[in-house]
Amino acid sequence: MRVTEPHRVVVLALDGVYPFELGIPTRVFGSADGRYEVRTCSVDGRPVRSGADFDIAVRHDAAVLETADTVVIPPCDIEAILENGLPEPVSAALARIPVGARLVSICTGAAVVAAAGLLDGRPATTHWNATDRFRTAFPRVRLDPDVLYVDDGTLLTSAGAAAGVDLCLHLIRLDHGSEVANTVARRCVVPPWRDGGQAQYIEQPVPRTTSAGTGAARDWALRHLNLPLTLDDLARRAGMSGRTFARRFRDEVGESPGRWLIQQRLFRARELLESTDLPIDRVAAEVGFATGASLRQHLHEAIGVSPLTYRRTFRAGSAPAPKVRTAMTS
């Protein structure tokens, strides 16, 4: 039986809202066994025009924002915002968000946050297809269009559509650890994290090749992280030369095999730190780092803390938000 109040998530639906992204917070946070309570509102409590051929009725107006621990802004019709800024009613609604509440945007919802001046001088991301217009409209934002999401403490932004799922899982991982986030991911039938950034989704010519992809080799590597894997090992699994494999891998994943492998080892190490009492050297061996010192170095470079500090934080059930964190370091 839970004795703490659930974390209140309020989703602000604006005109032109995309129905899929609007439903992400309810679907993801709602799968966390009562740890979150999700409410959806519009500025005035009236139905909002969606980006599809129907309107969406909500049960709350902007007053519910005052009760939020986390506010999520899905993508909406941002053309007028890019040209003329926020309508006054939307600005007034955002002003009702409590100090200290997390503010999260999905896809082009970042334009709403930026138009309110809340992203000035801060890192953020949005859908890669909106990058040029976003930079023109909000030149003071430190836009990074290559990542799936950015965590800048109480301000978090994500790229298009499914990256909103990634970000919601990231928040659950911060709040309750990897085991809970992984359980939620399984219930939603989505991966607990995705490799690479937006680069792998930007429209570009498909590489002309008849060779198989690198997916099978990656799956094999994830089952054998304890081994001292090399590029040649993975290339042999894929039936390619090392050079061809490295090129195909970057085309498919968006980064090098070596960097990807380190990240997968860190993901698994963090799960073990959260869910077991294994000594640090044993955790390092289980995930393929040669020594506990190597694990300490890589984990500190990735998230700025030692394995023991990470374990104490997440085994206790709470986690400090880092200054900047993307999907690849979450």
TrEMBL record:
MF GO annotations: DNA-binding transcription factor activity; sequence-specific DNA binding
Keyword Transcription: yes
Record flagged with keyword Transcription: yes
PROSITE patterns membership: HTH_ARAC_FAMILY_2
SUPFAM superfamilies attached to this UniProt entry: Class I glutamine amidotransferase-like, Homeodomain-like
Residues forming coiled coils: none
Keywords of the record: Transcription, Transcription regulation
UniProt cross-references to InterPro entries, sorted A to Z: Class_I_gatase-like (IPR029062), DJ-1/PfpI (IPR002818), Homeodomain-like_sf (IPR009057), HTH_AraC (IPR018060), INH-QAR (IPR052158)
HTH araC/xylS-type domain location: 215-313
Gene3D superfamilies: 3.40.50.880, Homeodomain-like
PANTHER family on file: ARAC-FAMILY TRANSCRIPTIONAL REGULATOR, HTH-TYPE TRANSCRIPTIONAL REGULATOR RV1931C
Name by which UniProt lists this protein: HTH araC/xylS-type domain-containing protein
The species this protein was found in: Nocardia aurantia
